[in-house]
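so my prof wants the structure for this chain in the tokens format not the other one, which i didnt know existed until like an hour ago. anyway here's the sequence
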Amino acid sequence: MNQLVTLLPVMVFIPGQTFLMGTPARETSDLARRYGGTRESYHEETPQHEVTLPAFAIAQTPLSAALYAYAVAAGAVPPPPIWRGPTPPPPLAYLPVTDINWHEARAFCDWLNQQRDLAARLIDANGRPLPPPARLHFRLPTEAEWEHAARGNDGRRFPWGDEFDPLLTNTREGGRAAPNPPGAYPGGRSPYGIEDMAGNVWEWTASLDRPYPYRADDGREDPTAPGRRILRGGCYANPQGYARCACRFRLAPTMRNQFLGMRLALSVE
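here's what i got, hopefully its the right format
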């Protein structure tokens, strides 16, 4: 259990507030010129609208293969095919877990919630320790929570601001061509100090693929509903346009590949 707690990512508390979600419709032509496609390609991100969220916490870093391996050993989830065995190869252990589907990401959260005496390390946006809630409930973040954690409440295009910088993120432009470990891009942190929300690996969210405006009570957060689920963040193999905070990607929940990972969220109320 001590090793499990050590591997648990730091959880950053984000207070309840209102933020700007999505992309203004007037910007879709500019996005098409910068990143390719047509302006219609970006309509799924429109309209930009205000969303009010309750307080929650989100992991400062993506989930590691080393932590995921505990759930594999317990029989809660199968090993990702990329491991070619029951444990991650040493070079992959402290990189983000990949090659997992949405159902397995949720199953990992369910397993984690069953571990006794598991205390999350909770901090605020300035890195100050906070007391953990009396009852921990780990889960995937909703699409809205993920975007708010990535961009703050001012509608910025990337976690660090409006202009792309290949030195701040792991996308195709940087040439790394593989996932990165925690702490590789400190200048690319979000306003809340969250790492790797642009590039590195795509991250499953809890949310169904539904049009905007976002409403948490319209069925899109039903875990039993069929349909594609939203991923966020882009990955090391994608160009910069996919690393924008508002970019939405969707896949069948059974889909897996070496670009797909996860990040924990935590209910705190």
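also thought this was worth mentioning. The domain at 2-267 is CATH 3.90.1580.10 (paralog of FGE (formylglycine-generating enzyme)).
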